[in-house]
């Protein structure tokens, strides 16, 4: 089982690395593209498409590191006997402790492990299964967050997963483009997250040196966890290789919210031009309420800037409004953060997997 766990982790590691690599390319290309940020799924300050993608990448990088760690930490059981005492081997070698330890090391080396457990019962501790499936469950949480974001962005028409030319979004509504890949990932990720409960309960009921409570359960949950993670990563790689962004939709949404965000900058510009902060604040408050009413009550566009341009009070800064409303001035250091994150954390982490980066994901829809 330990050999199978190690080999299974070796299959997942390059797949996760490829997903991170594809998303890194996506983030780099769109590092400076402003987009509306959301907190509580309500409009917040601006970020960039690339910076948001780096939130996804950072979680996956943690998963990659944890997968590698749990893989490298695996220890072999070695030759320990029925209750872990090595009594039968000691008898075989006529009481020679050194030969027993040599055999233990030879078998461990032969199996490809650097270390073996010194202490075991009849089996290796089932805490190992908990550690492995905890990492896979954490990966499931990361993927669920990523694919939920993609699904929400698809609803906003800002981003879509790949959509085949002949793909049918809905049998009843031919215009629909349902994010079925992301939905599949979320569905499988929820299952993956629940599987860690099995090894937790199995480890807790291992009486003394061992009971058979574990056997049938482990045959199911360990295999399911790796098969589920494998399918998720194949699907997520396919998604990350074909993400589509709609900048004009993003730009339109920014135009709807940016005037309200820019009010503080407008007030500061007026104060610099000699205006009263209190008077300016009151003017902006009234105009903002009027513009909000147009948006909410009438379903119209945000016309706050037009109202400011039409108000003679703000004439000292009319020529500055375009600059004050430049979306790129509201994204802070997002693009620099993307660049630094990719160069200092992501690319070094992916370096050991360079030889397998060109493999494409095979996906049957």
From TrEMBL:
GO cellular component, one term: cytosol
Keyword Heme in annotation: no
Keywords, in A-Z order: Lyase, Purine biosynthesis
Record-annotated Adenylosuccinate lyase C-terminal domain positions: 258-342
CDD domains linked to this entry: Adenylsuccinate_lyase_2 (cd03302)
Gene3D superfamilies linked to this entry: 1.10.275.60, Fumarase/aspartase (C-terminal domain) (1.10.40.30), Fumarase/aspartase (Central domain) (1.20.200.10)
Reaction equation(s) it catalyzes: (2S)-2-[5-amino-1-(5-phospho-beta-D-ribosyl)imidazole-4-carboxamido]succinate = 5-amino-1-(5-phospho-beta-D-ribosyl)imidazole-4-carboxamide + fumarate; N(6)-(1,2-dicarboxyethyl)-AMP = fumarate + AMP
Enzyme Commission no: 4.3.2.2
A Pfam family annotated for this UniProt entry: ADSL_C
Pathway where this protein functions: Purine metabolism; IMP biosynthesis via de novo pathway; 5-amino-1-(5-phospho-D-ribosyl)imidazole-4-carboxamide from 5-amino-1-(5-phospho-D-ribosyl)imidazole-4-carboxylate: step 2/2; Purine metabolism; AMP biosynthesis via de novo pathway; AMP from IMP: step 2/2
Top-level EC class: lyase
Matches recorded under PROSITE patterns: FUMARATE_LYASES (PS00163)
GO molecular function: (S)-2-(5-amino-1-(5-phospho-D-ribosyl)imidazole-4-carboxamido) succinate lyase (fumarate-forming) activity; N6-(1,2-dicarboxyethyl)AMP AMP-lyase (fumarate-forming) activity
GO annotation, biological process: 'de novo' AMP biosynthetic process; 'de novo' IMP biosynthetic process
Superkingdom of source: Eukaryota
NCBIfam families with a match to the protein in the record: purB (TIGR00928)
Similarity comment text for this entry: Belongs to the lyase 1 family. Adenylosuccinate lyase subfamily.
Subunit structure: Homotetramer. Residues from neighboring subunits contribute catalytic and substrate-binding residues to each active site.
The protein's role, per its UniProt record: Catalyzes two non-sequential steps in de novo AMP synthesis: converts (S)-2-(5-amino-1-(5-phospho-D-ribosyl)imidazole-4-carboxamido)succinate (SAICAR) to fumarate plus 5-amino-1-(5-phospho-D-ribosyl)imidazole-4-carboxamide, and thereby also contributes to de novo IMP synthesis, and converts succinyladenosine monophosphate (SAMP) to AMP and fumarate.
UniProt name for this protein: Adenylosuccinate lyase
Organism listed in the record: Rhinopithecus bieti
Gene coding for it: ADSL
